[in-house]
Amino acid sequence: MLETKKFRVGIIGVGAIAQACHLPGYLKDERVQLVAFADPEPERHKEMALTFGEMRGYAHYRDMLAKEKLDVVSVCTPNKYHAEAVIAALEAKCHVLCEKPIATTLKEADLMIAAAKKARRKLMVGYTHRLFNGPKKCKELLDEKVLGKPFMIRVRFAHGGPFPGWAKSDWFYKKDLAAGGAMLDMGIHAIDLCLWLFGPIVALSAKALTLIKKIEVDDNALLLLEFKSGALGYIEVGWTSRPGFSGIEIYGTEGSIICDYTRGVYLVGGKAAAGRDGRNDWKTLDKSPTEGGWSTEIGYWLDIVSGTEKLTMDGKAGREALEVALAAYKSSQTAKRVAIG
């Protein structure tokens, strides 16, 4: 039997997300050979040798792309460098998985999409929440029209912030490197889920503020969304949260879905009333709403590269979510409702 050719993989940027998701994901998949990484920080090269074994390390990704014949590249740099790294990898004829957000400007996103088309290579944006059991169940129920006509979605993602703690450095809090704060970090996931579940957003009003942390970017944000369908949406994201609800709520004419990331996914029927005759009928659908995500993302991505899975988290999806996020910042700065599209 002929041995199947393995995809040669390189990673650009080996900080927290690379170490938590991309590196272990590639290492456990028999379809790939993880051969190289690029990162300007000398300490990261030591970490790679100690934790992830033999890989060739480069200080600059252009050297890696020139010297290694790679098939697949993950871009895990700070947001500022996404566009230039992705375009370089595409020009080197690699399929590219880019961490979210796709870029920091729509012009950059357009150039990335054009580069993928020209190279005839796949560009995926890492919208990991789509791979959780909970959001997948929400999508399934909406596609089956279980709720009747959906008219409201609420998404809340909040925690204490990426640094100190999870992140390897404080670049998330630097405007030059990150371009935005909680809204561009966690909010981009929430925005993508809203677009995926409810369709195009035509206008919004938003407020992004730095309420608690002494940082250059927003640590909390609220968005009020108007969908093409006529539905409304509400997003709350923050880096200053104590424990509380995290997840998705979807309301329709025939019922509701409560996707609580800590407790489970529930289908709620019955009757909501102003008086005492209200009644809620709860049905548990899934007790592991956050199963999946990082643990399945790289396998899913390699299915796309192999052609056994359809690419939906593409450059277009990345651009659409970024357009909404940038419109939200504009609304916050101008204190005005902003139309999209």
Description of the structure:
The protein has helices spanning 16-27, 42-51, 61-67, 82-91, 106-119, 133-143, 175-178, 182-185, 187-198, 294-306, 315-334, and strands at 7-12, 32-38, 56-58, 72-75, 95-98, 123-125, 150-158, 201-209, 220-227, 232-238, 247-252, 255-260, 264-271, 279-286, 338-339. The protein is of the alpha/beta class and 341 residues long. The protein has 2 domains: 7-125, 3-Layer(aba) Sandwich (Rossmann fold); 129-291 and 322-339, Dihydrodipicolinate Reductase, domain 2 (2-Layer Sandwich), CATH 3.30.360. The protein has a 9-stranded mixed sheet with strand order 14-13-12-11-7-10-9-8-15. A 6-stranded parallel sheet has the order 3-2-1-4-5-6, sandwiched between helices. Helix 4 links the parallel strand 4 and strand 5 (95-98). The termini are far apart.
Mean pLDDT: 94
Q: How does CATH name the architecture of the largest domain? A: 2-Layer Sandwich
Strand arrangement within the widest β-sheet reads 14-13-12-11-7-10-9-8-15
Query: What is the highest CATH level, the class of the largest domain?
Result: Alpha Beta
Sheet/helix structural class: alpha/beta
Low-pLDDT ranges: none
Label the overall shape. Answer: globular
End-to-end distance: 53 Å
CATH fold name of the largest domain: Dihydrodipicolinate Reductase, domain 2
Oligomer: single chain
Number of beta-strand segments: 15
Q: Major sheet, described briefly? A: 9 strands, mixed
| Percentage of residues in DSSP E strands | 25-35%
CATH-level-4 superfamily name of the largest domain: Dihydrodipicolinate Reductase, domain 2
Alpha-carbon Rg, integer = 21 Å
Order of helices and strands: EHEHEHEHEHEHEHHHEEEEEEEHHE
Number of domains: 2
Q: How many helical stretches?
A: 11
Q: Helix coverage percent of residues?
A: 25-40%
